[in-house]
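TICKET: design request
STATUS: open
ATTACHED STRUCTURE:
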């Protein structure tokens, strides 16, 4: 069974799933296109899901869409990368919860209505995740359509003494009523220092680390009436409300990018557990950051790469998936155009190989290899090891081509690389392939098998399948 690193207990834990498992992933804030760094987290959720499903576990996934309430100063994604790089010290400061709503600010910049903007980027997100073969979650609630759930949760927290309303229409969570605050990130309340700005002096709060569950505002289409006044929800309360509604008051996995550990997940845990009266989430799982060319991917650094940029560069979108799989989710991944191109070549070569093998005499799966790959997946998603074993299988001449075919297709259920895409495809010889075929024929004549194999790989990367027959080589 799958074992995975639990950020809260700080150890690799076996995921005790019966026949069903529920998981929540913090979804995108839909105010711009997701970059490939953002998409890495969602691949983590997809992999966990696919590994569990292979073990016949029925997975129910919920992933929210944040279309309101996520303020520019809320640390997430690019904004928090710097904090993580500089270690715990930076995140020890309580973070300001004031600032402007990301969706509203961008809508103004683009001259669109906030909802128009949010729906546009939500649909862009859906096409990106579909292009990466990420299975759609069962539930994808939008924050703006779940306000009643949040109001209900906030009312419950007030009633139980965990939250308080103040005269301006704000509602705050009373951090000191949740003594185990900080278990996920290690940022315990007594170690949190007041932030230098608003929080330190905010007279509305009982304690500097309290955070807003509801914020007053009367402007625009993204505000709602509540018992405390008109306003909009705080970002952290959204995930608690939606996960409790769609997955229940006790569920197995909560997944997100590492930057969400604090304060987002600490706040979420405090809210959910205080409402439920017990620990709601069994395991907290976090995916590491992605760097591009050695630097954080951020608008401010000018190195944002979108999936559409990868496609425009002539690469298969699944090259991104392959490049992610080459690294374990807990490793910081430094992506470059070269690693993307290399990943693209591997995907194309494997598709060509699978198509070649599909024409061989059928043979049962190479079980020993399949089991090794599956144990690598189970071992805290050791995808680099899984890929190494697959490369070994690709080269192993003692395994019949038909067996390789079965094994690669079987494992593609988890890899999600569309390895059967080239089966039965007629192809025109691409530019440059003719020369390589001739060079390979010469290498074979000279019995230079090493060169012949290398040329075969190069041809496979171009989508040309070479077969050796008694009459010489043929291609398809
Ligand atoms: Zn969340």
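STATUS: resolved
RESOLUTION: sequence designed for all positions
ATTACHED SEQUENCE:
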């Amino acid at each position: 069974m799958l074992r995975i690193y639990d950020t809260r207990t700080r150890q690799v834990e076996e995921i005790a799933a019966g026949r069903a498992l529920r998981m929540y992933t913090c979804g995108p804030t839909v105010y711009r296109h997701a970059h490939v760094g953002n998409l890495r987290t969602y691949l983590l959720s997809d992999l966990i899901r696919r590994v569990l499903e292979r073990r016949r576990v029925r997975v129910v996934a919920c992933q929210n869409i944040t279309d309101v309430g996520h303020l520019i100063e809320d640390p997430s994604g690019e904004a928090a990368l710097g904090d993580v790089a500089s270690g715990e010290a930076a995140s020890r400061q309580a973070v300001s919860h004031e600032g402007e709503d990301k969706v509203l600010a961008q809508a103004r910049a683009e001259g669109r209505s906030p909802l128009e903007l949010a729906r546009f980027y939500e649909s862009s997100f859906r096409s990106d995740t579909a292009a990466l073969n990420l299975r759609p979650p069962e539930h994808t609630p939008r924050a703006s359509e779940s306000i009643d759930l949040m109001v209900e949760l906030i009312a419950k927290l007030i009633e139980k003494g965990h939250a308080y309303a103040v005269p301006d229409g704000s509602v705050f969570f009373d951090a000191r009523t949740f003594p185990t605050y900080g278990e996920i990130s290690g940022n315990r309340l007594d170690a949190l220092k007041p932030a230098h700005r608003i929080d330190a002096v905010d007279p509305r709060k009982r304690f500097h680390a309290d955070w807003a569950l509801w914020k007053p505002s009367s402007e625009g289409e993204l505000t709602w009436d509540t018992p405390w006044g008109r306003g909009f929800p705080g970002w952290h309360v959204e995930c608690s409300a939606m996960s409790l509604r769609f997955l229940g008051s006790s569920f197995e996995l909560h997944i997100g990018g590492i930057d969400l550990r604090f304060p987002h997940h600490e706040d979420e845990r405090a809210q959910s557990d205080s409402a439920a009266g017990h620990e709601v989430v069994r395991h907290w799982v976090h995916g590491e950051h992605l760097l591009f060319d050695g630097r954080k991917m951020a608008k401010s650094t000018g190195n944002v790469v979108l999936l559409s940029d990868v496609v425009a560069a002539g690469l298969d979108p699944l090259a991104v998936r392959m490049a992610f799989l080459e690294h374990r989710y807990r490793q910081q991944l430094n992506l470059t155009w070269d690693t993307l191109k290399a990943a693209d070549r591997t995907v194309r070569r494997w598709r060509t190989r699978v198509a070649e093998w599909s024409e061989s005499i059928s043979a049962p799966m190479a079980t020993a290899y399949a089991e090794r790959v599956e144990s690598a997946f189970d071992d805290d998603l050791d995808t680099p090891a899984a890929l190494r074993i697959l490369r070994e299988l690709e080269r192993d001449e003692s395994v019949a081509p038909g067996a390789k075919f079965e094994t690669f297709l079987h494992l593609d259920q988890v890899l999600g690389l569309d390895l059967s895409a080239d089966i039965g495809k007629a192809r025109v010889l691409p530019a440059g392939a003719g020369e390589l075929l001739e060079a390979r024929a010469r290498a074979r004549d000279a019995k230079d098998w090493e060169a012949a194999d290398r040329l075969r790989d190069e041809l496979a990367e171009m989508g040309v399948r070479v077969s050796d027959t008694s009459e010489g080589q043929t291609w398809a």
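CLOSING REMARK: The longest strand covers residues 251-257. The pocket of zinc ion is lined by residues 26, 239, 264, 268 (CB under 6 Å).
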